[in-house]
Description:
By secondary structure, this protein is of the alpha+beta class. 14% of the residues lie in helices and 32% in strands.
Amino acid sequence: MKKILLSLMAMLFVCVMASTAQTVSGNVGGHDYVDLGLPSGTLWATCNVGATKPTEYGDLFAWGETSTKETFTFENYKFFKPKGYDIEEITKYNTKSRYVTVDNKTVLDSQDDAVVVNWCGSWRMPTEEEMQELVDGCEWKWADNYEGSGVAGQIGKSKHNDNTIFFPAAGYGVADGREYKDRYGRSFSSSLSSGYPFSACSLCFHSGDIRICYEIRSLGCSVRAVYPKK
């Protein structure tokens, strides 16, 4: 009887572990995606831009920049003209006259989309609405050691099907380089915060929460690609 119980417990453990594994539903242009059955039909890449598997952190990008870099500051950001600790001018993607050049652009142009530039085909960065759909469409659970990889992050299990997506806590880039690996994750969308144009919409998470927030555009964040419904 004891052997039977141990066997059943082992089977249950395997099933639980398997249910957290990143689902691969298909591949487009050499990049794997997961179909979470979301109402919009949006397909999500299984790893960050710059990574080759879900447990790699990938590259960090300032919002609207298409190449990674070592440090992230007001001074080396493409679209800010700083003055001391403040932003004197925003040269693109601005809705407020306070920051001089008003173009009322609130979504990244293709040439400023890190996915469009670095990947191929119809892959692109997600919009704020698509990120919110992702957050609302999954049950989320934090993992300190995802699938034995030693990497921490958030596991999302779809409410619409049995598929799973994983976001590693890749940290974020500041003046001193990448910080807070395996503690925090930030992933930029293509959407500007129109009320605060020095910020952009991001997926933000740690061990206790996952939600949509707004991060300063010069911060170095991960990028996760999406593909429109096939």
